[in-house]
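Q: I'm building a small set of examples for a reading group on sequence design. Run inverse folding on the following structure and report the sequence directly after it, with nothing in between.
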């Protein structure tokens, strides 16, 4: 065991969330943050909802956040050389999450072409390229 590991503790576990059908599913890319005054340690959960942090011994506030879910915080104590498993179960927030919609990008691009092309033609601009 290294000196860092001896003076630190592992915090690991899984992040789950209830969906609209009340099924419990792993949440990937949830932010897991442990704060102790000015010290901040964070990780993102993987595709299975698993996370792991190696943090120095001390008292921490651990917060888990993911858009579309209610954030959850909990106070913990980490001892040197310890390993703790803490799982988080998040509830849906029922607040709409803005999503990227590819079809809107295509509509926006076509709209810009429809607006800018006539202006380009009126100004006498050349819209053709020569390929040889």
């Amino acid at each position: 065991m290294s000196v860092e590991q001896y003076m630190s503790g592992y915090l690991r576990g899984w992040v789950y969330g209830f969906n609209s059908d009340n099924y419990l599913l792993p949440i990937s890319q949830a932010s897991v943050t442990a704060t102790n005054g000015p010290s901040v340690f964070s990780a993102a959960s993987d595709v299975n909802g698993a996370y792991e942090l190696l943090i120095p011994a001390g008292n921490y506030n651990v917060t888990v956040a993911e858009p579309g879910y209610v954030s959850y915080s909990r106070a913990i104590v980490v001892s040197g050389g310890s390993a703790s498993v803490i799982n988080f179960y998040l509830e849906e927030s029922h607040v709409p999450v803005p999503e990227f919609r590819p079809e809107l990008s295509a509509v926006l691009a076509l709209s810009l072409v429809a607006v800018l092309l006539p202006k380009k033609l009126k100004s006498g601009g050349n819209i053709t390229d020569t390929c040889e």
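The beta strands are 8-18, 24-26, 31-36, 39-44, 50-56, 58-65, 72-78, 83-85, 88-90.
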